[in-house]
Amino acid sequence: HPFPRSSLTCPHCQKQSNTFDPFLCISLPIPLRQTRALNVTLVLQCERWRFVRVGLAVPLLGTVADLREMVAREGRIPPEQVILAEVSPRGFLRSLSDPEALGAAGEAGPVYAFQPPPARRAGTAPALIAPGLARGRGSLTVIGAAVTARSSDCLHRAPGGRILLLLCNTAGTGPQLARFGPPLVLREERGVSWEQLQQSILAQLRGVLRGEVLAQGTGALFRIRLAGGSAPCTYLSPQDPRPLCHPAIDRALQLSGAGGPPHVKLTVEWDMSTKERLFGSLQEEVVQDAESVRRQQQAHGQQHSCTLDECFQLYTKEEQVQRAPPGT
């Protein structure tokens, strides 16, 4: 037929209505870009910590679940093992949950994807846990608020199980506060003492340590704060026999979001003198850019173009007409 045909099909009875509309000119829609470039820094587990930044073309209308799948393919790890978080030059900002829209991801700070260390086989004891761990009543020190909680408040049974901790090291105060060293993730027993937790953190940082640290009796070298928007500002207490067992840790686990393993974000705060003695002038981790970073920036930096045929395809694309509700 010389005139274009418009077809309307009923989804229930499949009856089709065809009309022929002549025209001399036509307004065509222009296809819009469906993706945007997003850089994600992968923190992978191998013989040593490995950092690589990759460029991804993420869907504009996608969710964090889509990003998790893409990161899992890049890192060749199962999606359920990926922990996604925004990390700024001052420390952790927030974890990303699967139902969230991807539109705001990476705007507040660069996105990091963490691969947790492999879980230890059941029945094996961690190397840093001493037998006969004391079970005294501890206290939680909360800085900046008149709130006190005891680790025993949430322990109606002996502490057990392992917990995933995301760690970020900072030094300085106020405007000079800055992150240094690599962000890390480790598994730790809930029942460890402050000294055992401190030794675990130092063991993770041994590759960047410059000064000597005694194995025992060093006292508290730093402060540990729950990160990621927990309110009020909560610090773990060195006097607590089980600092990972108080209610604030349980709340952080529950709020870690859907998708990926439950975890707790901790900021390790060093004073400048101790940081300089043990780490020198160490700044943020060195991250290698994969070729995909340049490729995605180049592809999305160019002006979006399309062919006339693509415009006609979008114009003639089948669409679902919504039925008006009764009474309208």
Automatic annotation (TrEMBL):
Keywords: Hydrolase
Keyword presence, Chloroplast: no
InterPro entries, per database record: Papain-like_cys_pep_sf, Ub_carboxyl-term_hydrolase
Keyword check for Hydrolase: yes
GO terms assigned for molecular function: hydrolase activity
Domain of life of the organism encoding this protein: Eukaryota
PANTHER family, alphabetized: UBIQUITIN CARBOXYL-TERMINAL HYDROLASE, UBIQUITIN CARBOXYL-TERMINAL HYDROLASE 43
Protein name, UniProt field: UBP43 hydrolase
Originating organism: Mohoua ochrocephala
Gene: Usp43
